[in-house]
Design goal:
Layout: E1 5-10, H1 16-26, E2 34-39, H2 45-57, E3 61-64, H3 69-82, E4 85-88, H4 91-101, H5 117-131, E5 146-150, H6 156-165, E6 170-174, E7 193-197, H7 200-213, H8 225-241, E8 246-249, H9 255-267
Parallel strand pairs: 1-2, 1-3, 3-4, 5-6, 5-7, 7-8
Helix pairs in contact: 2-3, 5-6, 6-9, 7-8
């Protein structure tokens, strides 16, 4: 019976970097009987000593990504004293990069996982945008940085999500001919509202493709030229009635291109 090989990851931070390296390495072997244990957030010399003591109870290879030189020295001393094995994943790479770049390494643990304010802002924007997609929660429109309006399949949702990834809280509202737009839309700062339009035939093609993907008939008012044209005329009439709304024509336009137009408007404010 094969004896299980234990691998212990020592880190000043999460230990995720070392674990990824170990798992990628183990993938090169035929079903090795191994167990991986993490010893994360080792902040003091006592933490190092206690972690090594735990390893000594069930010996195995210690793989570490410690950043503090004092911690590395303490670990090496404890490993030698107890007759264990260890491998430093990060120091050889840092030394080589310092030599190549001609710059000293920061040797700060957890830098790659640091959550900064910009990341949090973008995450909040994405969460807001998901909750305000396709006319949801219109009572919160005043909290949106941008509100996109347009008839069905004018790229409201993908454009909203792209802008959210740039840190904008976006709501989008479908315009349906014969139904009034939500009252809240006209109570917010009208400079935030963006009307989307598109060529009639291109919109028909997009809708027909959508219906085919859903295994539904492409014949009906949803793709009928006169009906689609009427919807777009209705939307354009609404845009003309609200002069402060910026209008973006999505005809043959990539999401990134449309987003750039919109962001330019808001960056100039």
């Amino acid at each position: 019976m094969k004896r299980t090989k234990n691998i212990y990851i020592f880190s000043n931070s999460t230990g995720e970097t070392a674990e990824r390296v170990i798992r990628a390495t183990l993938a090169q072997f035929d079903a090795p009987d191994t167990k991986i244990y993490r010893k994360s957030y080792l902040k003091t010399l006592d933490d190092i000593r206690m972690a090594v003591e735990d390893v000594a109870k069930r010996p195995g290879l210690i793989v570490f990504t410690l950043m503090h030189q004092a911690h590395i020295a303490e670990l090496n001393a404890e490993v030698e004293r107890r007759g264990l094995e260890s491998f430093d994943v990060i120091t050889p790479i840092l030394d080589k990069m310092q030599e190549y770049l001609g710059l000293p390494a920061k040797r700060r643990p957890g830098v790659i996982y640091k959550v900064d304010e910009e990341y949090i802002r973008r995450l909040d924007a994405v969460n807001f945008t998901v909750k305000h997609d396709d006319g949801q929660n219109t009572q919160n429109l005043d909290q949106a940085d941008i509100v996109l309006v347009g008839v069905s399949r004018t790229s409201k949702t993908p454009l909203s999500m792209y802008l959210a990834g740039k840190g904008y809280k976006v709501a989008n509202i479908p315009l349906v001919e014969g139904l009034p737009a939500p009252e809240q839309l006209f109570k917010i700062d009208q400079e935030r509202v963006i009307g989307l339009t598109i060529d009639v035939q291109q919109l028909i093609n997009i809708r027909a493709s959508r219906m085919r993907n859903m295994r539904q008939s492409t014949i009906g008012r949803y793709t009928e030229y006169e009906s689609v044209e009427s919807e777009l005329v209705y939307a354009k009439r609404l845009y003309r009635q609200n002069q402060k709304w910026m209008v973006v024509d999505m005809t043959n336009k990539a999401i990134e291109e449309a987003a750039a137009e919109i962001m330019k408007k808001f960056q100039q404010k």
